Structures are given as C-alpha cells and as structure tokens.
Amino acid sequence: MKRGFFDLLRSPVLWAVLAVAASMPLWVPPYYLGIATQTLVFVGLALAWNIVGGLAGQISLAHSLFVGIGALVPSGLLISFGVNMWAGMALATLLSAVVGVFIAWVDFRFRLAHLSFALVTLAFAEVGELVVIGSDFLGGASGLYLPPDTGHISLFQFGGSHGYFWVLLVLAAVCTLANFAIINVRLGYNLRAIRGNEDAAQAIGVGLFSNKAVAMAISAALPAMVGTAWARYSSFVDPYQFSSPLLTIQIVLIATIGGLGTPLGPLLAACLLVPFGEIVRGHLGGALPGLHSFIYGVLIVAVILLMPQGLVPALLRLSRRAAGGAGKQLQKS
Length: 333
Prior knowledge:
Layout: H1 3-9, H2 12-22, H3 24-27, H4 30-55, H5 63-81, H6 85-110, H7 114-133, E1 144-145, H8 161-183, H9 186-196, H10 198-203, H11 208-234, E2 236-237, H12 239-242, H13 245-258, H14 264-284, H15 291-306, H16 311-332
Antiparallel strand pairs: 1-2
C-alpha cells in the first residue's frame, strides 16, 4: 500500500467532509434529505462500477444485475422464508461476486474485445431482468413489498430516513475508500496496465484473469450491498428500477461524465447530476412534463462535448493552467 492512501485517511479535509455529510439529517429538510440519500446510492454504484469500467477499462453493462441481486434476493428470502436481511445481504454479496468472477472468466476464455465484452455483460443484465420478472420468489413484474420498518438494527431496519441516510453514507464511503485503496496497491497498477494494453501487460507478467476476476468480484459485491440498503430504504422493490439495464446506463453515464479512472470523478458527478435531475424534475416536471429530462439531457451533452475526458480531469487541467499562469506572473515580477 502506497503512503498516499494513509495520508488520505489522516487528511482533516476527508473527516470534515464526512462530519458535515453525517450531520445533514439534523438540519436538511426531508425533501432534500431524500435527494441526498438518492445521491449517496449513485455515489456508491458509480464508484463500484469505476473499479472495472474506469481503472480496468472494461465497459461492463451488467451492474444492474448485481444491484438486483442485492435488492431482490435478500427481500425474497425475508418475505418467503423469514431470513434476516443481514444474512440475505451477505449471501447476495457473495453471489454477486461469484457472478462477477464468472463474467471475468468468460471475458478471459474468449478474449473478448471491448465492444464484445460490453454486449456480453448487457446480455447478462437482460437475462437477469427476465429471470426477475418471471420469478414469483423475486416478486415477478409486480415487485416486492417489504415489512414495515420497526427500527430494529438486528433486522436490517434503521428507523426511517435518518438511519438509511447514515447507512448509505457508510456504504458510499466504503466504495470511495475501496477505489483509493485499489489505486494505491499492485492491483491498481495491474488494472491500469491492462487498460492500456492487455497484450503488453501480459507480456510483463500481469495476470489477466486473476486481476480482472478480483476487480470484477469487488465491483460486483459493492453494488449488491448498496442494493440491499436501497431496497430496505425504498420498502417497495420495483424490478424495473432495481434490475433494469437502464440503471446500468445511468451509472455508466455518471461515472463517465465525472471522469473515469479516478475516484473523485464518479463522486463529483453523482453529487452534481443526481440532485440537479431530482430538483429539476420536482420543480418543472409537473408544469411542463418532460422538460426536466430535456434540460438534464442538454446539460449532459454539453459536458460531454466541452469536457470529453470528464469533469475532474478538466478541472485539474484548469487548475494547473491557473497555477502555471500565476507562476509565470511571479517570475516576470
């Protein structure tokens, strides 16, 4: 582990941001707290996807499958057999990791090109949605209604919006730290080498399957955990929300706009795009139906055209130019 990761853990900025975020339920109105909770969901999902899509350069479109496993398997076990959702989340996390490793094996076995890998993972997501819709245990097309929240943490119940905000904040922090940790260990270097050139990486001794499998397992397990908490927070598990491939598109869009390969990119993009979309929909959706989607789409297109590498790389370039300009002015003076 590089020293930079431990420097991050000791950074007062990190703990100040976490402290401010943790205090939000105490002073933020309920409507905006709901938006903040939704934002944390997509922070975690975008950062989990970034491990494979950003660091390894593997455009996976299967992450709705992992969210669906995390949301629907524990919910189905609870409703049908009374299994504690903590145990259900552990099982769903393990199952998602196994599926992730299997997808990595398919990629390695058939040496899929980037586009082929994306299509294969999309097929996994589509099959997953069909399985959910056709299964009574998973709620079918009608979804699953979870029992009322009585506030018993031992039953994976956290007593309302405040509790679920804190739970999702912890999961978002775990996903963030997982990204920083991977970047600062050998796995991160290997994944970036694979992203640059798989053949060259293999030639210098980087194991393609082992590294992809570990990355895919982590990237699949984290969304399952977020999915379980998101489902319990929502109380109603809608298959078209939790297992639709459209969810993956939204996750990929957020991570790409923020900037791939850096934890700050998906984090910043989720914190900007999700609240913006929800607030615009809340204020303009009723007056002019569809206008919020149009404005949201225009903003996304503008960011992609003006900042093709993402928000964070563009901001870093601007800061370097500003610092370079200030340095030249000092030299002249």
